[in-house]
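Possible race condition, two jobs.
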Amino acid sequence: MNVIFEFILVLLNIGFSCLENFISLFIPPKRKDITNEIALVTGGGHGIGREMALELATNGAKVILWDINTEGVKETAAEINQNGGFARAYKCDVSNVDEVNQTAAKVKQEVGDVTMLLNNAGILYGLNLMRLTDEQIKRIWNVNCLAHFWTVRAFLPKMIENNHGHILTLASASAISGTAFLVDYSATKWAVDGFTDALDEEIDKLGCDGVHTTTVYPLFVNTGMTWYPRDRFGRVFEPREVAEAAIDGMLRNRHYVHVPRINSFTRAMGGFLPKKAYRALKKYCDLGIDLQVKNKDD
C-alpha cells in the first residue's frame, strides 16, 4: 500500500478516535451486561476491593474474593450472598506465585473460569526513601506490582482462548505524578500502569478484540492507608465513590478512569508543561502527603 495513502488512513483513524472520545464525554458508551460473569477481586476484604465486589454483585456478576484478611473476605461474601448474589471467599497472598496458582486452580474447579480480573490488592507505607527497610521495599513491589504478573498469567490464557474478558488495574494518581514520601508506592503504580498499557497492546496484537483493560487512577481515598493527605482544592474520596467509578468505567470498556475526572488533565499537563512549571502548579495545589508515622496520634 502507498505510504502516503497509509498515512492518510492513520490521520483519519486519529481524528475519528479523538471525535469518538470527545462525544463519549457527553454521551457515554452503553454499559455491558455482566450477568453471570465470573469476576475475581483481589484485596476484596475491605476498602475499594470490597466496594467493587458489592457493585459487581449488584450488576449480576458472580464474585470471587481474594485477600489475606480471611475475616474480611468472608464478611464481604456473606453480605453478597445474603442479598441474593453469588460470592465465594478465598484466603490468598497474591505476592506468592505458588499460592496464586493453587488458589486459581481451586477457583476454576469450584466456580469456573474467571472472565473479569480486578487487580486491587495493594499496600502503602508513606515513608521517605531512606527510612524504608529492605523488606518493606521488597514487599511493596511483590504486592503492588509482581502480583499482577501472577494473577494475569493465571487467568488471561482462557480469556484469550475465548476472546472474552476484562482486566481492571487499580493504579493511582501517583502513577501519573510521583509524590514525595511515596517513592516506593509511586514506582509500583507507575509500573502497573505501564504493565497494563503494554498488556493491552499485546492483547490487541494477538487479535483479541473481546478482551479489554481498564486502569483506574484515584487520588486520595479514605481507606486508612494514607493518614495525612494534602489537597488544597480537592477532598478525600470514599471507597464507594471510587468503586462505582471503576466499575462504571469497566462496564463501558473505558481504558482509563480518573477519580476525580478532572485529573485526566493532569496526564496531559505533565506531558506539555516544563518540570518546574508542573511542580510549581502542584505546590500551589498543596498536593501530596505528609510523612506517615506509626500511629495517628504520634
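Job #2 (started ~2 s after job #1):
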Amino acid sequence: MTPSPTPLSRRSLLGFGIGTAAAGLLAGCAVPGSTNVNRAALVPAAARGETVQITYWGWLKDLQKVCDVWNASHPHIQVTANWIPGGIAGGYQKMYSALAAGGGPDIGQVELRQIPEFMLANGLVDLARYGAKEHEAKYDEAAWAQVEFVDGVYGIPQDTGPMGFYYQTAILEQAGGEPPTTWDEWKVLADKVRKTGKRNFLEVFPVADASPFAAYAQQAGARWFKVDGDEWVVDLTDDATMRVADFFDGCIDDGLVDTSASAYTPGWYAACADGRIAAVTSASWGDALIESIQGSKGKWKVAPMQKWDASGFGSSAIGGSSAAVLANAKHPAEALEFITWMTTSKEGVDAMIKYCGIGWSPAKDYIGAQREQPSEWFSGQNYNEEVFAPAAKEQNIDWSWSPVTQSAFTSLQDQFRRKITGKLKLSDAVELAQAEIVQSFKEKGLSVRTAR
C-alpha cells in the first residue's frame, strides 16, 4: 500500500502564520532557539586524514560496545556513547536543555513517535541534505516512513516493534483453541480461556497504557494525525478507531480481558507464571521480557498478529527509536555514516542485538544472525523469521505521529480509566480525549481542526 503525500514541513508543523517563537510553547522543554539549522549552510565533512570525535546520547545498554566495533575499523571517525535516562524519564529534557544552551551531542536516541516534537523545536538536522535518501532502500518501508517528512529525513531508524501473538501452548490446548487469525477469532478464544477458570484470561487490556490501543487502531487502518496545507487534522473518531473501541468495550463488559494490570508489570508476570494469563499481543521486543516469566521456558510460542479483516494489515507496531542527528552537531556527515552502518551492516546489526538487545532491526534484508536461529525458549520455534520478518512488511505505513504524542497518550489513558471507575464507553472516551488533544495543539500555537 503506497502512502499518499503528506506535506509535513517545518511550516506545516508550526501552522499558518506562526513563527519560530511558537516553539517556546513546547510543554516542559527548553527551546533550542529560533535558528533553523536546515536553512544554514551545510557543515563540511572533515578534511581527509583528520580524526573527528562524535558523541551519541542514548539509553540503550552497552551502546559503547557497539561504538567500539565501529571505532576499531574507522580510526578517523571515533564515536563515544553517553548513557542518558529513557526519553520521557529525563532523556529528552536533557537533550532539549543542551540544545538550548548551544550544545548537545552529535547523535541522540529519539523515539519514532517523538520526532515531530523535536522537529517543532528546530532540534534535528535534515539528513536528506547530507545524502540520507541514498540509504532509503536499505530499510523496511514502514520504518523509513516514520523518519521521512516531505523532502526531509529527520532521523535514521534504529529499531522498530512489529507485532505478533505470543501464547502459552498448554493453556490454549486446555481451552480447546488455536492461535487466532482474526480479532473475531481472538474474542471466541478469550471466551474459551475464561471458561477454564474464574481468574483466567487470554490477555490484558491496559487502561493505563494507550500504546496497545494505538497499535490496534493503526492496524485497523486509522490515521490519527495528518496535515492539510498549514493545518493539522486530528481524527481519533474515524471508523477504524471506533471499531477498535467498540470491540474492546464489549470485551471489557463481557469480562473477557483483565484490566487490572498492563503487560510486563509484576502482577502480569505473576499471572503468566501461574497460568492465569494465556497470551499477549505485543511487539518483537517482547520476547526478551517474556523470557523473564518464571518457569516458562518451552511453554510459549509465537503466531502472526490477528487481523481485523482477512485482507487487512497483517501487523502493527509498538515502540521503536531513531538515531537522530541533533541541531548542534559538529559532524553531521560523519554521524550519518556511522548510524547507517550501525543500523544496516551485518556487523552493526549483530552488535546492536548482542550488546544492546535492540528491538527489531530496521534493515530490509538482515534481521541479525542471532535471530535467524530457532529459539529453545520458545519451544524450538524459529519465530523471528516465521512471524516478525513478514510482520515488519505488513504494516500501515500511512500512520504518522504528531508534535503532541505524549499528551495525546496521557489524555487517552485518563479517559480510559473512566471505563473502569465510571463505566464510560471507550468510544466516548476517545471522543473526549480528542477534544483534549486538539487543545494541546492549540496550546503549542499550532493550527488544528478535527476531521469531522
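The chain has three domains: 10-160+317-372, 163-204+257-316+382-396, 209-253+404-452.
Logs attached separately.
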